[in-house]
Amino acid sequence: MKKLINSLLYASLFMVALSFTSCQEEFEEVGGDQQETLMAGSNTADLIVKTSTNDGSFDNIVDGASCIAVKFPYTVEVGGIQITIDSREDLHLIEEIFDEFDDDEDILEFLFPITITLGDFTEVVIENKAQLRELAEECREGGEDDDIECIDFVYPITLFTFDINEQQTGTVVIESDKDMRRFFEGLGENDLIGIDFPVTLKKYDGTEIVVDSNAELAMALEAAKDECDEDDDDDYNDDDFDEERFDFCLTQCPWQVREVVRDEVALTDQYLEYLMNFTEDGKVTVIDRAGNVLNGGWSVRFTDRGPLLTLEFDILVDFNLEWLVYEVGEHTIKLHAEGGNKIIMKQLCDDDETDPNSLREILKECEWVIKKVKNQGEEIDRLLGYEFKFMAEGVVTLSNGENTSEGSWEIGYNSEEVISLLITFGDEPAVNFEWPLRDLANDRLKFEVDEIGYELALQRVCDDNANDGDVVEIRSVLMEGDWTVALYEEGEVNTTAEFAGFTFNFVANHLVVATLGDMGPATPGLWRVLRNSEGELKVYLNFGGDHDPLSELTDDWYFESITDTRIELQSESGDGTLETVVFERL
Question: In the predicted model, what is the mean pLDDT of residues 260-270?
């Protein structure tokens, strides 16, 4: 496992060290303990502000602007369908609709008013499209926003303030980016501040570095500016491509032509369902509907506008152009050229279709952990983290690690000819349903009947993630001793006091016991550490829905940081509120 707390700066920082020789002029040592300070108007302070700026790029698919974010919940209309966006995960729905139809213009309309959050975390109510367009103009898609997204502060961080006589006047504990940004907003350009080092920074790839001075901090933040793709485009979750990734996508499977327009003339009927096979050596083979084989070539170059794909054929002259790849979605590529030229193709891979036998084998390969269950629109939190095990002869078990119930399962087609999972449990009616399969990707299964509010989302877990070093280490730390809640926040509301007196003991078989005081009562719950289908570490906690305040901890938390005595977890609620819980070991 990458060491979670790394006390050394990476060697790459050395390459930018020379550019910071002048930085020493920004810093002064004041006071008897030689506290190093910096001016609020210095370059280092500017880097701190940019790193703590609210990142608005995650929802560019709806607002096209990286310096603002639309506050959840809000409603949009896409392709004639109204969708309420309650969380970041719902943004997937918009992209799915955009990618569903080949001949649409991907138009999205807000149902105003909406509330947006600026880079300094200020909230503004927007009443109409004109106001939104005006506010977003400065950071419209394609422009650069000011924030540094490839590195983050690990909080809490303690700052000191000084007067004009360089005497310390106060201490401020910063708990979040919002706190940091607001603190600097309140300073004058010549104000002096100090930082209580060491400070830990988390890079975009999850690794952490520790800095011990203002100069090291400045070098780390400056070096991180261009270390990753900040995803400041208006597509969700990054459809950007480097050359290697684009070539792989293009050559992985055949492409079927779905639409062709040349010089504003529709030629789809002529070329519909032609198959194009791209090979890594720059050749492309086309098979027409009669089975004839036509040969040509392809090449690609990358520009600020995106990939430009050149096609060259002796016979298929309607394809001969340098095409802008303006969209690459899931199994879809859209090409465009000026003058009314467009090609849309669908990727055809052998494993695109899931048949009943394939789904049966997939389900039996590993265990499946419940990420979400909804019945008639109501989320059943008490089953979060429970584990299905699908076995031969139609036997399935459902377990929380301590108690196991048994039922039956089968795979078939429902009345609408959609492949479905039928589960029957006598003692657990919440999962008794004929679940139509809606998504199977990256170790994740989703079954859903949206019209009546039924949903079942499962995460595949093989061998309890025993081969994942990160998962094993986090589990080992949590199982050493008793823990208390040192911090619980929902947005700006701190309710840590509600957990006073509780101790938490994480033991084997996914059992956690919360005990109030020395004599009890003791409340059992479920805990899990796993890596989800996106490669992120998650910590599941489940105390059911009837044990206040412990029920507030029931969630699949994102893992943020850990030491031998402290673990921080975060989650985003449906309205966009950031929830944070910190456990500390006694």
Answer: 92
Check if the beta carbon of residue 154 is closer than 8 Å to that of residue 567. Answer: no
Q: What's the pLDDT band for 229 if we cut at 50, 70, 90?
A: low
Q: What is the mean pLDDT of residues 555-569?
A: 94
CATH fold of the domain at 356-461? Lipocalin (2.40.128)
User: And the tokens for 35?
Assistant: 């506290």
**pLDDT higher than 50, residue 32:** no
Write down the CATH number for the domain with range 243-347. Answer: 2.40.128.280
Task: Please say whether the beta carbons of 347 and 254 come within 8 A.
Answer: yes
Token couple for 384: 């979060």
Closest CA to 4 of 566, 538, 584, 527: 566
Distance CA 562, CA 583 (A): 9
- The whole-number pLDDT of residue 34 equals 54
pTM: 0.45
**Topology (CATH) of 468-585:** Lipocalin (2.40.128)
**All structural domains of the chain with their residue ranges:** 11-52+149-224, 57-139, 243-347, 356-461, 468-585
Strands (E), 94-189: 108-110, 114-117, 123-126, 151-153, 157-162, 168-174
Residue 16 binned pLDDT confidence (cut-offs 50, 70, 90): very low
CA angle 64, 70, 71 (to 5 degrees): 165
pLDDT > 90: percent of the chain: 48
Region 110-128 average pLDDT: 92
CA atoms within 13 A on the CB side of 495: 12
What is the rounded average pLDDT for all residues in the chain?
Answer: 83
pLDDT: is 98 or 142 the higher one? 98
Q: Do domains 356-461 and 468-585 have the same CATH topology?
A: yes
Buried b (16+ CB within 10 A) or exposed e, 90-120: bbebbbebbbeeeeeebebebeeebebbebe
Report cis status (omega within 30 of 0) of the bond before 254.
no
Written as six digits, the tokens of 240 are 């950007």
